[in-house]
Amino acid sequence: TQLLEQSPQFLSIQEGENLTVYCNSSSVFSSLQWYRQEPGEGPVLLVTVVTGGEVKKLKRLTFQFGDARKDSSLHITAAQPGDTGLYLCAGLSIQGAQKLVFGQGTRLTINP
Amino acid sequence: EAGVAQSPRYKIIEKRQSVAFWCNPISGHATLYWYQQILGQGPKLLIQFQNNGVVDDSQLPKDRFSAERLKGVDSTLKIQPAKLEDSAVYLCASSLVPFTNSGANVLTFGAGSRLTVL
Predict the structure, then answer these.
(1) Closest Cβ–Cβ partner in A92, A99, A104 for B42
(2) A3-47 per-position pLDDT tens digit
């Protein structure tokens, strides 16, 4: 079974600070996605990374896929209260049927 | 375009009762997924449909859970009888095509149906 471990599980910081969330696995994934989920809503896709070592930027968010395609990170610069939410990484399995495996999530709170 | 519609949004039942959830995917999306999200955890895939056929139901507790997608559009997920550990949010998602290694797929989730089993 392919597992994705996210750290930290909870993070509360002040507006304007920078932060990094990690997503790690012992398994290789063909691609990895990051989602944000707000209370009472379903996850919303932020980005998909496909190539080992790939870096994608989405305004103040920077996503990186590890060279070995086993891990990923999400870095937020100058966090804002609107960034508050549950951040989920999800890896597409490389073995057998194409299945999206989710991490347990990082609950981020940005305090004004 | 309209999003993925789910109902009911909330349901409270007692253990051993039954419950059904309904999902209407985005028009034209051939692939439909049901996920279970227990509080504090990430979503876990229960079943995946391609049109009206089942692609993956390996993590569906088939002794109590069932799902169907008649005519390849709407889908229902049923739990009978419910257990306390079934308390969770049941998320429906759809995508235009199944996942491929290109990573180009976009999975669109509904708002979910929150089930509380007492």
Answers:
(1) A104
(2) 899 999 999 999 999 999 999 999 899 889 999 999 999 999 999
Among A89, A90, A86, which residue's Cα sits nearest to residue A74? Answer: A89
- Return the HEC string of A27-42: CCEEEEEEEEECCCCC
Q: Where are the beta strands (DSSP E) in A1-112?
A: 5-7, 10-14, 19-24, 29-37, 44-49, 55-58, 61-65, 71-76, 85-93, 100-102, 106-111
Note the pLDDT tens digit of each residue in A62-88.
Answer: 999 999 999 999 999 999 999 999 999
- The amino acid sitting at A13 is I
The pLDDT assigned to A2 comes to 67
Q: Does the structure show a pLDDT above 90 at A98?
A: no
The CA distance from A12 to B103, in Å, is 31
Phi and psi for A83 in degrees, rounded to 5? -85, -10
Min Cα separation B77/chain A (Å): 17
What b/e sequence results for B32-50 when a residue is b if at least 16 CB atoms lie within 10 Å of its CB, and e otherwise? Answer: bbbbbbeeeebbebbbbbe
- Is B25 in the A-facing interface, judged by CB distances under 8 Å? no
Could you give the count of Cα atoms lying within 13 Å of B71 in the half-sphere of its Cβ?
Answer: 6
Chain A closest-CA separation from residue B14 CA (Å): 22
